[in-house]
Design a protein that fits this description.
This protein has 11 helices and 9 strands. By secondary structure, it is α/β, with parallel strands linked by helices.
């Protein structure tokens, strides 16, 4: 358990909890603690789905600018790789990951949210990539994941302007997947995550890998990734259970074992 980031597990749902007052600024220590929590969530068999949660007040308002201001070019040459891979560790969790966003998800905080599979956003939240206002660009995946999610023109508008998006605009362009009152964000995220806890874990893992890896390659290669993962699931016990249950009882009644 880190000083500012911890993994809390209950009923099959792991919550990566950011807790660095006041704004959950992502300094180097927080970045590395996010990596550690993501790796723990990946490894733990009792974690079936993950929520990234900054608390009732704020998700994460961005990088620690005071820390970053003192860095030289060579400092950032050394740090930029670990910065990216700390966020990528969240994207690579082979389980459904939901960002529960209250307050602000800006800069590195928005990039952390982009690394998740889904985003539940408070109705009064603000999201954005304001790095351009500091004379830099997003450096933890924002230029790449945002463009893949909302399209290049919208991503350029958001990044070039540095403006903040409200919850409704975020929902309209696909940056948010669900908007709820701020007090309901975490509960709504848990409700969403709960549906995956008793699912066919290896099938969910394969589906996530097929989609994510497929976005990185051409269509023909993506189809081959899908084919191999599809065929591989025929070696799992859950495939046997799922098909037998469908034949005998109809869809949606299988009791999966996660094997």
């Amino acid at each position: 358990m880190g000083e500012f980031v911890r993994l809390e597990v209950e009923d099959g749902i792991g919550t990566i909890r950011l807790d660095r007052p006041k704004m959950n600024a992502l300094n180097v220590q927080v970045q590395e603690e996010i990596r550690a929590a993501a790796l723990e969530a990946t490894d733990r068999a009792d974690v079936k789905a993950v929520i990234v949660w900054g608390g009732e007040r704020v998700f994460a308002a961005g990088a620690d600018i005071k820390e970053m201001q003192t860095m030289s070019y060579t400092d950032m040459v050394d740090r930029s790789g670990p910065l990216q891979t700390s966020i990528t560790a969240v994207a690579r969790i082979p389980k459904p990951v939901i960002a529960a966003i209250t307050g602000y998800a800006l800069g590195g905080g928005c990039e952390l949210a982009l690394a998740c599979d889904f985003r539940v956003v408070a109705d009064d939240a603000k999201l954005g990539q304001p790095e351009i206002l500091l004379g830099i660009i997003p450096g933890a995946g924002g230029t790449q994941r945002l463009a893949r999610l909302v399209g290049p023109a919208r991503a350029k508008d958001i990044i070039f302007s540095g403006r903040f998006l409200d919850a409704q605009e975020s929902l309209a362009i696909g940056l948010a997947d669900k908007v709820v009152p701020a007090a309901e964000v975490y509960a709504a995220s848990r409700k969403w995550a709960a549906q995956f806890v008793k699912g066919a874990g290896y099938a969910i893992r394969a589906a996530k890998e097929a989609v994510d890896r497929g976005l990185e390659v051409d269509l023909e290669t993506g189809l081959e990734i899908e084919r191999m993962l599809f065929a591989g699931l025929f070696a799992t016990r859950d495939r046997e259970i799922g098909m037998a249950s469908f034949v005998e009882q109809g869809p949606g009644k299988a009791q999966f074992e996660g094997k």
